[in-house]
């Protein structure tokens, strides 16, 4: 439909960094995984609610607990994404709210590296369920009954409110909405 348009996908390691790039025009559009936060200059459109799971290795002792709260993890090693990542922030806020300050933390830039370290038994991590589906099905990872998060996280489409919406950009947004609508309908049928 738009053969001369070139898409460039860039990873961003924090939502604040992405929002800054949208505001200064470095990015035209972004996918943000975060809680819905109204912004006066950025349009956010929730596409799909994401499930977050606290995962451990299949040999970890916590897999047998009926429910986990922040104080249960105080002495555990947490394998975290970079500072500024929305779900890391929610995890840390859950600990702070309960007055729990885990002593052992390791920070990574790659979800794949985190998954491999969890599988190896080096610690626990809170990750989007979509990123660990295969490992959960194969039994390499175990989802723990984590009761610490209170906010829902969504994959959201974001752009500057004053952005001139070119026809290719409008077509991309429309296609994205349709694809996520199809995914939601497929998930509802499977449920």
Describe it for me?
It is a single chain. The chain is α+β, with helices and mostly antiparallel strands. The chain has two domains: 15-49 and 152-190, D-Maltodextrin-Binding Protein, domain 2; 52-144, D-Maltodextrin-Binding Protein, domain 2, CATH 3.40.190. The protein has five helices and eight strands. It has helices at residues 15-23, 86-97, 111-119, 129-138, 167-190, and strands at residues 30-34, 42-50, 52-57, 77-80, 104-107, 125-128, 141-144, 153-160. The strands form three sheets. Strands 1-8-2 form a three-stranded antiparallel sheet, sandwiched between helices. Strand 4 (77-80), helix 2 and strand 5 form a beta-alpha-beta unit. The longest helix has 24 residues, at 167-190. It starts with 14 loop residues before the first helix and ends with a helix. The model has no long low-confidence stretch (mean pLDDT 89).
């Amino acid at each position: 439909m738009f053969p001369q348009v070139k898409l460039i996908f860039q990873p961003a390691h924090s939502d604040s960094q992405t929002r800054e790039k949208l505001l200064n025009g470095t990015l035209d559009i972004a996918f943000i995984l975060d809680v819905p936060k109204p912004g006066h200059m950025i349009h956010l459109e929730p596409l799909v609610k994401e499930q977050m799971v606290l995962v451990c290795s299949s040999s970890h002792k916590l897999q047998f607990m009926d429910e986990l709260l922040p104080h249960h993890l105080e002495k555990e090693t947490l394998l975290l994404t970079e500072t500024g990542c929305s779900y890391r922030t929610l995890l840390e806020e859950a600990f702070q709210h309960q007055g729990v300050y885990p002593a052992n933390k390791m920070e990574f830039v790659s979800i794949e590296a985190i998954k491999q370290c969890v599988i190896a038994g080096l610690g626990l991590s809170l990750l989007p369920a979509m990123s660990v589906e295969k490992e959960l099905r194969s039994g390499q990872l175990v989802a723990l009954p984590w009761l610490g998060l209170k906010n829902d996280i969504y994959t959201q489409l974001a752009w500057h409110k004053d952005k001139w919406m070119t026809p290719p950009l409008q077509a991309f947004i429309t296609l994205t909405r349709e694809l996520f609508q199809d995914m939601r309908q497929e998930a509802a049928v499977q449920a």
